[in-house]
Amino acid sequence: QLAGLAVIAFGLWLRFGGVMADFASEKKSPEYFFMGLYVLVGAGALMTTVGFFGCCGAARESQCLIGAFFACLLVIFAAEVTAGVFAFIGKKVAVQEAQKIYEDIYDDYMKNPAGKVNSTIYRYHLALQCCGKGNMEQQMGLPCPENIQKVSNCLVEIQNIIDADLHLVGIVGIAIAGITIFGMIFSMVLCCAIRNTRDMI
């Protein structure tokens, strides 16, 4: 249950509290990246629910509930492995989506520097701590934060941030997978112990 709540909190933080959350306020957003976070939050909710039923099964010493708990953990473990592979394969797509959003905003700003997109591109520069797409010509005239110590390429920063976020997701996934394996082992041990106790009686 605690692991499930931690996964929910982590997924919501990445979705609404991280740097990438700024990309969700526009008409276009990196759906591939956010879809992975929604799956993560859903898995956390499922783990919390399954953990509750596992506790009930252990308290009531019900082999049926504990067996169902084991089956659910097995499904969650398979889903985690699948999601991990999916995230690894889809990382390039998520990076390309986010970069395309920035490039579209950059092009809109170049066409109309005084328009509404001025504040939008500045917000991205402030969140990503970058300015433009690389060379000095592409940075001149852009609304860049004044406190940037080193002007960097926004496309590179987007890739770095997504790589870092997915790295964190991978670490959390491995930790949760380990907890799931221990949960399956202990549930089987408990189920066998209950069965042996009843056979002795």
Automatic annotation (TrEMBL):
Residues 1-21 form the signal peptide. It comes from Chionis minor (Black-faced sheathbill). It is a multi-pass membrane protein. Coiled coil: none annotated. Belongs to the tetraspanin (TM4SF) family. It is found in: Membrane. This is Tetraspanin. InterPro entries: Tetraspanin/Peripherin, Tetraspanin_animals, Tetraspanin_EC2_sf. GO terms for cellular component: plasma membrane. The chain crosses the membrane at residues 37-59, 66-89, 168-194. Keywords: Membrane, Signal, Transmembrane, Transmembrane helix.
